[in-house]
Amino acid sequence: MSSQTHTTLLERIRDGADAVAWDEFWTRYWRAVFNFAKCRGCSEHTAEEVVQDVMLTVFQNRQVFRYDSAKGRFRDWLGGIVRNLVNQRRAKPAERVRAAGGDGQNVLESAQDPHAPADDVWQQAFEESLLNVLLDLVRREVAPETYQAFELVALEGVPAAEAAQLTGLTRNAVYLARKRILQRLRELGESYRSEGRLLDRVKRALASAPSADVECSLTSWMEQSVPARGRACP
Q: Are 10 and 67 in contact (CB under 8 A)?
């Protein structure tokens, strides 16, 4: 996903009635926020609240915030917001921090600091979140047996002959499934086009994904709190 894609999405969410844009924003970034908060020492419950804080900060200030691409990357801008709200949560663990009015705007404004040091933890959480989104997209594009073959061979290390028996595909089709899905991931994520360790990054991204219970809990909150259309809980 290019920086232009992120910027266009931000322009769309300025319209509070654009439920599709909010759903896209949520789907792309909530995992990154949750995982970063956990890595910074937050409990699972507090990490969920940080996700809520971030989403409400952007939603409640959607008419006034501006992301300036000339000052840096979108991921760093969003990371600044997340870091500020994580710090607030950790400094005031007994209080429910809600970024409303001027406080929320200050969080957004202070996030875009071109001199802020890079945060490797946030960078990794952001990348893993986007990879999970891309995997979901690819999963919906291909036949179920094709994606299953990719999972078995590429992610679980199952021999191609065994994967062929399990999926009903030929051995050649199993190899093609692996190649096709990795190629599609590179097409969708421009930063992976020359990446030689994409498969290892996919495995780490899948391992970092929050539990289904966490996703269900946060998706339910999102549906009730902001105009988004989350996925139904299983």
A: yes
Tell me the domain boundaries of the chain: 3-117+211-225
Which tokens sit at 175? 């190899």
Question: Residues 215, 160: contact at Cβ < 8 Å?
Answer: no
Taking alpha carbons only, the member of 13, 27, 23, 199 closest to residue 129 is 27
Q: How far is CA 142 from CA 115, 136, 145, 146, 150, in A?
A: 43, 11, 8, 6, 11
- Confidence (pTM): 0.78
Q: Which portions of the chain are predicted below pLDDT 50?
A: 2-3, 94-102, 104-116, 228-232
**Whole-angstrom Cα distance, residue 188 to residue 145?**
21
**CA–CA separation, 37 vs 79, rounded Å?**
11
Tokens 């902001």 correspond to 226
For residue 91, what are its two tokens? 């400094």
Concatenate the DSSP letters of all residues of 109-155 into one string: HHH--TTPPP-HHHHHHHHHHHHHHHHHHHHHHS-HHHHHHHIIIII
170 secondary structure, DSSP code = -
Give the Cα separation of 201 and 130 in Å (integer): 11
CA angle 63, 64, 69 (to 5 degrees): 110
Tokens of 198: 């994409």
